[in-house]
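Hi R.,

Here's the chain you asked about this morning:
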Amino acid sequence: MTAIFVDGDACPVKAEVEKVAGRHGLPVTIVSNGGLRPSANPLLRHVTVAQGADAADDWIVGHIAAGDIAVTADIPLAARCLDKGARVLAPNGKAFTPQSIGMALGMRELSRHLRELSGGETRHAGFSRQDRSSFLGELENCIAALKRAKLSS
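And the predicted structure, written out as tokens:
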């Protein structure tokens, strides 16, 4: 059965994941470094990992499998999940794919380098209603594609 793993510390679409997963009967694991408010939903599980730079990422990678879905804006985590055969969505609805992850990693590294040179900060666009809508649509599409793939195999 497909499971959904959420990199939960700064994820703005946790409620949307819970809603969509509930409609499809899919289990969700939200992994974070800090305490999150627990949900009464029996399909939803919270995992709090030890403090550390990649503790949540390492937990997700250790438990995710091919045919699962990861929700994260963390590009290196997305790459690791793709390597395990999972599908990966950013909270804005952008799908990370094996074809696009190399460019995303490269742009991340370029941005880091430019920040170091300039001493400036990176400005991120705010999270919009359109981002939330795009995420909901893409999550539905991802689940449907996984269901079709399981039926055809």
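The radius of gyration is 16 Å.

Let me know if you need anything else.
M.
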